[in-house]
Amino acid sequence: MRLKYPHIAIGALAALAPVLQFEDLVPAETYYDIVSNDFKCETMSCFNTIKDSWDAITYEGQKNDGLQLLSKMFRLCRWFIDSDSIKDEFREPEKAEDLSDWLESAYNFLAMTDYPYPTDFVMPLPGNPINEVCIKIDSCSDRTSILERIFEGISVYYNYTGAVDCFDLDDDPHGTDGWIWQGNIMLVASLSALIDVSERVNVFGPCLVRTGYQEPLLDAYITAHDDFKSALKLFGSKIIFSNGLLDPCSGGSVLEDVSETIVALTENGAHHLDLRAATAEDPDWLLQQRATEIKLIEGWLNNYYQAKKGNFWRIKVMIFGYFLVYMPLSL
Ligand SMILES: *[C@@H]1O[C@H](CO)[C@@H](O)[C@H](O)[C@H]1NC(C)=O
Fold it and tell me: Is Protease there in the keyword field (predicted)?
């Protein structure tokens, strides 16, 4: 808004804006590295279980009745919801990858919404949800299989209320279709470059974001964004980039001051925690961050109104001068 419509927006607070998430500016793996780290930071066993689960899902899916087993294990909704006669039958995913995509989406959103207190932003979630997921994954008995652990963990995300009867892989509870569309036309991020990464070291390796972009379009955007950082410095002003380093989007955000009035506030929160309503559980750094933001915005507004007032008097003086000089002449 600020960059495109400077006459409308006096300034901007960009809370986790991955404006640098383009090839040549940040490595394409950054996003998933951050997601991975959020889980690693809980426990390595949690991270490793998730990491191993991708192969386990592929392996199961290749078995004869593998997809059916996966459907049962993950309680996927029956294909014919209203046909009561087949109580025990669950809808099979078309391929095991659909299940992986569904899981991956949850891990992504968990990384974004790893707030210190319970929220209902994307899904109803407990505070520190990644910690809760990992507790579930880690606390199963020794004989529990990898995929059973994953089911326990993922239920924190998809079924925290306990009110979900079955899971629908095609459900789009976050309305992400809209984001994907916007991403395709406005911010073709280079997450998709991961497709070429053969060495899959992090948790999310096998499950890749498919943005559905068209190659030529992507190329054009990458070229156009190459100079984004220097352009930002040259023609931008009055933007706060606030970042929470738990959020995978922070990898492509502006993490350092670009100029005197394009400043970065970088803390350890999740996705735009600073824009959420204040709560009693807000950590000190968050209070501080909000105070800094308010101070900067106040400064911009004061300048703006002062400049406007200056203009107002300048115009008044001009009109007054006109009457003073020309009126007597014309009389
Ligand atoms: C959701 O949680 C409730 C309560 O724990 C459980 O009874 C139900 O089976 C769960 N749903 C799924 C799909 O796992």
Answer: yes
The full set of domain ranges for the chain reads: 1-22+227-331, 28-223
Say yes or no: CB of residue 174 within 6 Å of ligand 1.
no
Q: What residues have CB less than 8 Å from 185, skipping those under 6 apart?
A: none
Asked whether the beta carbons of 140 and 152 are under 8 A apart, the reply is yes
> Which secondary-structure segment (H or E) carries 186?
helix 176-186
How far away, in angstroms, is 155 Cα from ligand 1 center? 8
- Name the CA dihedral angle for 130, 132, 134, 135, rounded to a multiple of 10 degrees: 160
> What's the CA angle centered on 235, arms 232 and 237, to 5 degrees?
75
List per-block mean pLDDT (blocks of 10 residues) for the chain, which spans 331 residues: 88 87 73 87 92 92 89 78 47 77 89 92 92 97 96 96 89 68 58 35 36 41 59 89 89 88 90 91 92 96 90 76 68 58
10 lines ligand 1 (CB under 6 A): no
Is the Cβ–Cβ distance between 156 and 129 less than 8 Å? yes
The CATH number for 1-22+227-331, chosen from 3.90.650.10, 1.20.1270.60, 3.40.50.1820, 3.30.420.10, is 3.40.50.1820
Question: For residue 189, what are its two tokens?
Answer: 């991020």
Instruction: Quote the CA–CA distance of 229 and 109 in Å, as a whole number.
Output: 27
Which residue from 72, 78, 132, 159 has its CB within 8 A of the most atoms of ligand 1, so it is best to mutate?
159
DSSP state of 127: S
How many A from CA of 153 to the centre of ligand 1?
12
Helix (H) or strand (E) segment spanning residue 264: strand 262-267
Distance 164 CA to ligand 1 centre (A): 6
Q: Does this chain's domain 1-22+227-331 share its CATH topology with 28-223?
A: no
